[in-house]
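Per reviewer request, we include the raw input and output of the structure prediction for the construct analysed in the revised manuscript.
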Amino acid sequence: MKKLSILCAAIMLFAFKTTDSPISEQERKNAIDLLQKTEQGVIDAVAGLSEAQLNFKAAPDRWSVLECVKHIAITEKDLWHLADSTI
């Protein structure tokens, strides 16, 4: 889940454009690189999990690993669009 937190923090950090100082091309490239590495990290983290592990919930009100990954996949398009619109 730490990787998910890093992904969200990176997106939020670079998602908002300020009129005084938009991010530079280098900052944008660094953000994209970080997001791509984080994406691969998430894929690698769940690659060997069994069906039971993917669906396990620590409590009824908690999300499973599979639910978290699905949430990332569903929201990814909007998050990339948000980050891409910073320049």
